[in-house]
Structure to design on (140 residues):
């Protein structure tokens, strides 16, 4: 007779907890920035391009911690808004992404809402939570 394994410890799965927390955090940022017509993921793409300058898609994906295919889907939406320009890189296989003037304006418009979301999230998880989250992000 086959018995089901003891799964009690799986109820405290760190992977599931982190994914649920990330989705909740993203929804909270999205709520704040929705009036500006931009999502948190799009804002992150644009601000990182503004901070780092034009980047190859692969390098941007690595920095953001997302799969290249996921970033490519997100970039299609951002490009359709006119917020980024995607052009061939030095290597024919590479494509380079740069933020446009319209993208900079979108960030400028949404920045106060992002700041409110950042403050609310920081207050909700506390200083220790913020530090732990940043340390975890640096470690992976």
């Amino acid at each position: 007779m086959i018995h089901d394994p003891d799964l009690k410890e799986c109820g405290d799965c760190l992977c599931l907890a982190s994914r649920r927390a990330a989705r909740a955090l993203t929804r909270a940022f999205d709520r704040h920035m929705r009036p500006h017509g931009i999502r948190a993921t799009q804002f992150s793409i644009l601000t990182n391009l503004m901070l780092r300058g034009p980047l190859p898609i692969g390098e941007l994906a690595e920095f953001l911690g997302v799969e290249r295919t996921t970033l490519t889907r997100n970039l299609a939406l951002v490009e359709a808004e006119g917020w980024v320009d995607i052009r061939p890189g030095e290597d024919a296989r590479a494509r380079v992404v740069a933020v446009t003037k319209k993208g900079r304006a979108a960030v400028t418009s949404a920045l106060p809402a992002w700041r409110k979301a950042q403050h609310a999230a920081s207050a909700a998880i506390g200083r220790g939570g913020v530090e732990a989250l940043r340390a975890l992000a640096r470690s992976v």
Q: What stands out?
A: The first strand starts at residue 55 and ends at 56. The two ends are 42 Å apart (CA to CA).
